[in-house]
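Please check this today:
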Amino acid sequence: MFLDGLDELDQRIVALLIENARASYSEIGQKVGISRVAVKARVQALERRGIIEEYTTVINPQKISGAVSCYFEIELQSDTFTRAAQILKENSTVTQVYRVTGKNKLHVHAVAASGEEMERLMATVIDPLPGVISCSCNIILSRLKDVKGLRL
C-alpha cells in the first residue's frame, strides 16, 4: 500500500521504526536478519531520500497541568491566504498548520500553557489575521486516539 516503492527489507525496517523509533540498529538487525551496519546503511539511505523525515518525542499536553490544546478551522480570502498561513507557521504556540479541502481553509492546532495564553493567541494572532472569513475553535478535552506518522 503506502510503502510499495520500498523493497521488503526496507518495509520491515520502517515498520519497526514506526513501532519504536528508539530501537537500536542491532535490535532491528536481529528482527529482520541483517547486520547492524546493513540496517544503519539502509536507514541512512531512507533518510537521504526523505522517506524518514525525523525522529521526535511526542508530548501529551493534556498530561501537563494547565495546558490547553485547540483546533481552529479558518477560512480566508484567497488574496490573503499565503500571508495568513505564514503568520501562523511562525507562531510558537501553533503546532500544526494544514491546508484542507474547501475554499481557502486552514486547519490549525495550537497548544498553550494556559487558557490565558490560548486567549492571547486568539486575540493577538488569530483574530487579526488578514482576510479571515470565518473561524471556529474547538478545545480538546481528551485524547482518545492519536496516530503519528504513517501506519502500515
Summary: The longest helix spans residues 36-48. The mean pLDDT is 90.
